[in-house]
Design brief:
Elements: H1 11-24, H2 28-43, H3 50-62, H4 64-71
C-alpha cells in the first residue's frame, strides 16, 4: 500500500530526479521510490545473497591468475 506524504528537498536535486525519470520514460514517483528503497537497503547494510557471494568467490578463485595479470 502506498501512502502520500509531503516533504521538501533541494530544487536542483528534484530537477535531476525528474530529468532521470524523463530520460528513462518513467514516472517521477517510481524513480523516487527506487532511490528511497536503495538508500534504505544501503543504510540497513543489506548483504548480497549468499549464492551471489559463493559465485563471486568461485570466480575469483578460478580466475586468480587472470585477475592478477589484468591488475598490472
Amino acid at each position: 500500500m502506498k501512502t502520500k506524504f509531503s516533504s521538501q528537498a533541494d530544487a536542483d536535486l528534484l530537477a535531476e530526479v525528474r530529468a532521470i525519470a524523463d530520460e528513462e520514460g518513467r514516472h517521477f514517483q517510481a524513480v523516487l521510490q527506487e532511490a528511497l528503497t536503495e538508500w534504505v537497503e544501503r543504510k540497513k547494510g543489506a548483504a548480497p545473497r549468499p549464492e551471489v557471494v559463493a559465485h563471486l568467490k568461485a570466480t575469483i578463485s578460478r580466475n586468480r591468475d587472470l585477475y592478477q595479470h589484468l591488475a598490472k
